TrEMBL record:
Extent of the signal sequence: none
Stored Pfam families: Aminotran_4
A biological process term (GO) from this entry: L-valine biosynthetic process
Name of the protein in question: Branched-chain-amino-acid aminotransferase
Length: 291
């Protein structure tokens, strides 16, 4: 991945992809003082760009550092890089981290580095494929108590347990894993939020110790626009048996129906199908406008 063609925006400059390097003594690598974003461009336009950039700034603030570029500057850098890369449908990965000037837990004065990489990511829309649903394992790790970790920051360190859970799920033949929270309530997948359907209403966990995803909020608005009832509440794993449909939401996942979680089965139905389509429509004008 580090040898691709193209450019990476690195501390204000466009550098050749393979030259965007950092020192092995970077604080961000040793102590996970890094925050990032995941964004998607459709038809040459980055969906909800400013919301993502604001979340990046906020994630850094939660970790006690300030990104030395304004939201407007970063938005512009993302847009310019997308254009220079020449992609229409792509994934956008901004990241900011503490540098290598000091080595130790304390690194108050280390430089805050910022980079943006963009790679091609076609958005294939095959509803019939999607509606088969994916299979989720139950994760062994739980989302931490907000008193244990800065759970509202999209911080690199919080992804350690996501990678462990996702790898374990893949080894066991699943696509992803459902994580509970520190209290044993249903939380989210390793990189996406989760929703359930029962008796025509949509239930989703309160996002009190994990990311309230930008896609999650978009899908809630789309569901309400259709007149569906949205119930945000504590959901216990024992309830999984009683839900009819289940789907994940996220920038990468978009709306992805789920067919199984451990021993429980779901049948992606009308509500999942409608929201898969509505989300595609919501990002579609961006593509249409660019064509
Ligand atoms: N939870 C986690 C752990 C994630 O990594 C993501 C992806 N950023 C989400 C939820 C969904 O967030 P969004 O819809 O903003 O992409």
């Amino acid at each position: 991945f580090d040898q691709m063609d193209g450019e990476i925006w690195y501390n204000g400059e466009f550098v050749p992809w393979a030259d965007a390097k950092l020192h092995v003594l970077s604080h961000g690598l040793h102590y996970a003082s890094a925050v990032f974003e995941g964004e998607r461009a459709y038809g040459g336009k980055i969906f909800k760009l400013t919301e993502h950039t604001e979340r990046l700034h906020n994630s850094a603030e939660i970790l006690g550092f300030k990104i030395p570029y304004s939201v407007a500057e970063l938005d512009k850098a993302c847009e310019e890089l997308l254009e220079r890369q020449g992609f229409s449908d792509a994934y956008v990965r901004p990241i900011a981290w503490r540098g290598s000037e000091m080595m130790g837990v304390s690194a108050q004065n280390n430089r805050i580095n910022t980079a943006i990489a963009i790679w091609q990511w076609p958005s294939y829309f095959k509803p019939e494929e999607r509606l088969k649903g994916i299979r989720l394992d139950m994760a062994e790790y739980r989302r931490p108590d907000p008193r244990t970790a800065p759970s509202k920051s999209k911080a690199a360190g919080l992804y350690m347990i996501c990678t462990l859970s996702k790898h374990r799920a893949e080894t066991r033949g699943y696509a992803d894993a459902l994580m509970l929270d520190w209290r044993g309530r249903v939380a989210e997948a390793t990189g996406a939020n989760v929703f359930f359907v029962k008796d025509g209403a949509i239930h989703t966990p309160d996002p009190d110790c994990f990311l309230d995803g930008i896609t999650r909020r978009t899908v809630i608005d789309l569901a309400r626009a259709r007149g569906y009832e949205i119930i945000e509440r504590a959901i216990m794993p024992e309830e999984l048996e009683g839900f009819e449909e289940c789907f994940l939401t996220g920038t990468a996942a978009e709306v992805t129906p789920v067919s199984e979680i451990g021993p429980y089965s779901f049948v992606p139905g009308e509500i999942s199908a409608n929201l898969v389509n509505d989300y595609m429509q919501a990002v579609q004008p961006l593509r249409a406008a660019a064509e």
